[in-house]
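Structure (tokenized):
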């Protein structure tokens, strides 16, 4: 029984995926074909790959390779950071970057990647306003504010209007 348990635990340990130690951060909206296109490589160890590939997300074919990597040294929790510049590539499509064993999320290159983002952002900001919310057709935080521990006891528990401002972190709490 012990051998069976040991064997099972060994197989689980061997087949468990490795914990990521490096990442590639991209512009999640995408990149315009004729604009600067840079991604950021960050790693918990000091290794930075010597090059990277741009790969078609549908076919997994390497479309573009580059060694244009600018090292920036340690930053915050990362011992290695670098910028991966693929500005020379201009063909619209869906891609991901691969630098060594590290793969980026998929992203798009195209002339319309930013279409609608201003509208989306303004709608989000309007929704995050504290007071009247046009999406909910309601007013919030009307009765939330009270004075606590006022030096004048008669003013303790006095109502304060705390409407206005912005909600924090999409949870409709106000700080």
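Design, position by position:
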């Amino acid at each position: 029984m012990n051998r069976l348990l040991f064997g099972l635990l060994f197989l689980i340990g061997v087949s468990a995926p490795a914990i990521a130690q490096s990442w590639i951060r991209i512009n999640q909206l995408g990149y315009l074909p004729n604009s600067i296109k840079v991604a950021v490589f960050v790693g918990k160890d000091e290794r930075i790959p010597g090059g990277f590939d741009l790969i078609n997300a549908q076919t997994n074919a390497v479309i573009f390779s580059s060694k244009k990597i600018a090292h920036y040294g340690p930053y915050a929790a990362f011992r290695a950071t670098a910028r991966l510049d693929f500005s020379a590539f201009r063909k619209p499509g869906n891609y991901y970057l691969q630098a060594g064993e590290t793969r980026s999320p998929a992203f798009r290159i195209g002339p319309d990647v930013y279409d609608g983002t201003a509208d989306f952002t303004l709608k989000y900001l309007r929704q995050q306003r504290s007071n009247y919310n046009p999406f909910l057709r309601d007013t919030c935080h009307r009765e939330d504010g009270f004075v606590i521990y006022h030096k004048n006891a008669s003013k303790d528990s006095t109502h304060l209007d705390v409407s206005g401002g912005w909600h924090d972190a999409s949870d409709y709490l106000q700080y």
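Reviewer-requested clarification: The chain has two domains: 19-109, 117-174. The longest helix spans residues 2-15.
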